[in-house]
Amino acid sequence: MAKRSHVEGETITIKKYANRRLYNTASSSYITLDDLAEMTRRKVDFQVLDAKSGDDITHSILTQIIMEEEASGGEQMLPVSFLRDLIGMYGNSMQAMMPQFLEASMKNFRNNQAKLREAFESGIGANPIAKLAETNLAMVKAATDAFLPGARGSKKQTDIEAKRDAELESLRAQMAEMQKKLDKLGD
Q1: What region does 9 belong to: left with phi over 0, alpha with psi -120 to 50, or beta?
Q2: How far is residue 176's CA from residue 130's CA, in Å, rounded to a whole number?
Q3: Does the pLDDT at position 96 exceed 50?
Q4: Which pLDDT score is estimated for 24?
Q5: For the stretch 150-165, what's the b/e string if a residue is b when 16 or more beta carbons lie within 10 angstroms of its beta carbon?
Q6: What is d(CA 118, CA 122) in angstroms, rounded to the nearest whole number?
Q7: pLDDT confidence tier of residue 4, bands split at 50, 70 and 90
Q8: Any idea what the Cα angle at residue 62 is, between residues 57 and 101, rounded to 5°?
Q9: Which of 22, 29, 77, 176 has the greatest count of CB atoms below 10 A from its CB?
Q10: Which has the closest alpha carbon to 123: 42, 185, 67?
Q11: CA distance 93 to 25
């Protein structure tokens, strides 16, 4: 049987069999969770279906990939406090709002990441970059206040904020120094 070629932009169907094997219908081959993780990083759109029932199990497969990434022994991305807060949201009156909030937060992060990359590539000074950092910091503070009332104000939180402010000031100084060097190169 000839392999079908995948049309870019088209959603690939992955079938998961009872023996836990994953089958890529676009390439007519068995794949692993690592392959799905790589496809995700490359922004390849796919949907995972249970081969027997036809149910869409994409969410549980993506969650499984995250669990394996977190357990792989490398640097973990999700802090324990975030995981506790996330678990605490299940059954909470705010649960219905979390998916939209997390999607909006991730979209904002990606947009700011792209702007930051553009600023570095075009050699723009410290001000736009510092502004992005302050925007992200303000967003995180607002989210903390909105979803974790009482989280701010403790000595530990104040210490964390002071450390973060010091780090931000250090970044500003480093960026100003980089701008001076870039200005010298441009002369």
Answers
A1: left
A2: 10
A3: yes
A4: 96
A5: eeeeeeeeeeeeeeee
A6: 6
A7: very low
A8: 105
A9: 22
A10: 185
A11: 40
Of 4-8, 26-30, 50-54, the one with minimum mean pLDDT is: 4-8
CA angle 14, 20, 22 (to 5 degrees): 25
CB-based contact 61:24 (threshold 8 Å): no
Q: CA-CA distance, 57 to 59, in Å (whole number)?
A: 6
Q: Give the pLDDT score at 50.
A: 96
The answer to whether residue 42 scores a pLDDT higher than 70 is: yes
Is-contact 26 12, C-beta < 8 A? Answer: yes
Residues, the chain: 187
Place of tokens 């607002």: 142
Output the CA angle 97-116-63, nearest 5 degrees: 40
Cα three-residue angle 52-57-62, rounded to 5 degrees = 140
